[in-house]
Amino acid sequence: MCIFCKIINKEIPSKPILEDDNFLAFHDINPTRKVHALVIPKAHYSSFEDTPSEIMNSMSEFIKKVTKELKVDKTGYRMITNIGNDGGQEVPHLHFHIIGGEKVGRLVRDKEDA
Ligand code: 5GP
Ligand code: ZN
Predict the structure, then answer these.
(1) Ligand 1 atom at shortest distance from the alpha carbon of 80
(2) Whole-prediction pTM value?
(3) With 0-12 CB in 10 A as exposed, 13-18 as middle and 19+ as buried, what is 76?
């Protein structure tokens, strides 16, 4: 079972933000900004590529509730989902990063990309 499935099953503790029957939002263990949340479906899909459109539809509604809860809905935020090897995905369970609470800055090319 993947790490995020274990978080859903409460085998691994997390700091939850919001939960419903199908989705869970919790704080990233290693935050990169003042706000760094992760939003996941309770069903296991390995990435955006494997996720049915109906799930994405309802997930987008859930994410908007999360951004209101985090109070970044008006100030703005960056939403990222990493996909596969080139995308730098480490946990193979669909998740959206919500980062903000401060200016996130421009996307820049990492030295290690070059
Ligand atoms: P990825 O690189 O797959 O897009 O991002 C995985 C994210 O999951 C990382 O930002 C990492 O800090 C976070 N993460 C990994 N393991 C755990 C955990 O056990 N608990 C929490 N809350 N976050 C985790
Ligand atoms: Zn999983």
Answers:
(1) 4
(2) 0.96
(3) exposed
